Amino acid sequence: MKTNNKQISKFLSLILRHNPGKIGLVLDENGWADVNELLEKANKDRHQLTPEILKEVVETNDKKRFAFNDGETKIRANQGHSIKVDLEYTPIEPPEFLYHGTVGKFREAIKKQGLLKMSRHHVHLSEERETATRVGARRGVPIILSIRSGEMYRNGIEFYQSDNGVWLTDTVPPEYIEF
User: Fold this and answer.
1) Are the beta carbons of 42 and 49 closer than 8 angstroms?
2) Is the overall model pTM greater than 0.90, yes or no?
């Protein structure tokens, strides 16, 4: 992704996941924003955003953070919201193991409390250790946690998978985590 596109992606993450009011944008209950309204309000806020640039950012974002509706008239973030939205996920059976990347300073808290969603809607997990390693490395030297997701599911804990492949759950109790 081009450098400017990376900045636009960060801007879209802020607006579509955390603070649409920053530019006066209103999301619907499912997190969708009207594309024309987003473009108009982003440009009033001095962001140089065109329909072509927006489409390029959505299509080239390596984490597939954003999605258009079928007619490309609406856009939303796929997950990671700190604001209330209903992404209409359907519970799905996860693989036997999923992974979570973090850093050592959180190890003791995780051992006691498990993984908590904190200010987000869900705990984010990945199918690949490599993805978890990249996520954990954003904050320092990563440690990778193996999550016994299949066992969690059989014990009644729901899982969802976002459009971009991220696995989501409300919490991961410590007894399902292998350090």
Assistant:
1) yes
2) no
Residue pair 141/149 in contact by the 8 Å Cβ criterion: no
How many degrees, rounded to 5, is the angle at CA 34 between CA 77 and CA 60?
45
DSSP, residue by residue, 61-125: -TT--EEE-TTSSEEEESS--SS---------PPPS-EEEEEEGGGHHHHHHH-EE-TTSSSEEE
Largest CA distance in the chain: 50
d(CA 32, CA 73): 10
Which residues, 6 or more positions from 16, have their beta carbon under 8 angstroms from its beta carbon? 27, 31, 33, 66, 75, 76, 77
Residues in the chain, overall count: 179
Distance, in Å, from the CA atom of 140 to the CA atom of 35, rounded to the nearest integer, reads 36
Tokens linked to 64 = 């597939």
CA–CA gap between residue 126 and residue 110 (Å, rounded): 17
Show pLDDT as tens, one digit a residue, over the chain (179 residues). Answer: 565 888 999 999 999 999 999 999 999 999 999 999 999 999 887 778 999 999 999 999 888 999 999 999 999 999 889 999 998 899 999 999 999 999 999 999 999 999 999 988 899 999 999 999 999 999 999 999 999 999 999 999 999 999 889 999 999 999 999 99
Spatial distance between the Cα atoms of 161 and 115, rounded to a whole number of angstroms: 17
